[in-house]
Fold this sequence. Notes:
Keywords: Disulfide bond, Repeat. It comes from Seriola dumerili (Greater amberjack). Residues 1-68, 90-171, 184-221 form the Ig-like domain. One of its GO terms (biological process) is cell-cell adhesion. By secondary structure, this protein is mainly β. It is built from no helices and 19 strands. Strands 2, 4, 5, 8, 9 and 12 form a six-stranded mixed β-sheet that branches. Strands 10, 13, 14, 17, 18 and 19 form a six-stranded mixed β-sheet that branches. It has a four-stranded antiparallel β-sheet with strand order 1-3-7-6, with no helix packed on it. Strand 17 and strand 18 form a beta hairpin. It is rod-shaped, with a radius of gyration of 32 Å.
Amino acid sequence: MNIIASKQDVQVGEEIVLLCKAGGEGTITWQKDEEDIDDEEKVSGIDESSSKLSIKKATMNDAGKYSCLCDFDSGHQDKIDIQLYIYEGPSFGSQKTYHEFLEGTNGMVPCLVTGKPEVDVHWLRGNQNIPSDEGERVRQLTDNTLRIEKVRREDAGLYECQAYIRGRTINQKLPVSVVVNAPPKVRLREEVKKVMAGSENNVSLLCLVDGLPKPNITWTM
């Protein structure tokens, strides 16, 4: 016997179609979690050795173990099982994907995910997983928020929040951009310490400025 399924991971609202093929003629019945399925709208015989189970729009309640049983005309009985997983999401909604932080402050980047049955979240930067260990300057909190303690300039860049349906490979990814701003810092440096006053003398002052984004510089007297 054999059960043919288009997929084992089915999204809520999708159609489920299971085809059971027996190795000979007989009477075929279907069960879900050891309970007989008597709904004629779901079960239809194709011929003496095959039967189809179809569900138009899957719900979370349709998850479970499906069994095809055959009482062969020869008197032999056989059974085969398949496990179906129903999921919804993961979905990030319309949350922000761009965050700006001031250098030296603590940055918090939320990752709000919904999904069923359960969703696991992982933060990555590049191909590296961000840890959740206490004491790490950049870490994932228990509520899936990314915490960047005392933000540095090198923390700027692209991060990724990955959400997985627990125990399955179903996932969604949300790219998040982090921008770091630094307030301008100005130092004046004169090239000559003492200059005698006079119309023929030149005085040069060097203005050294640091900041992110690059500051605009103006001189006033």
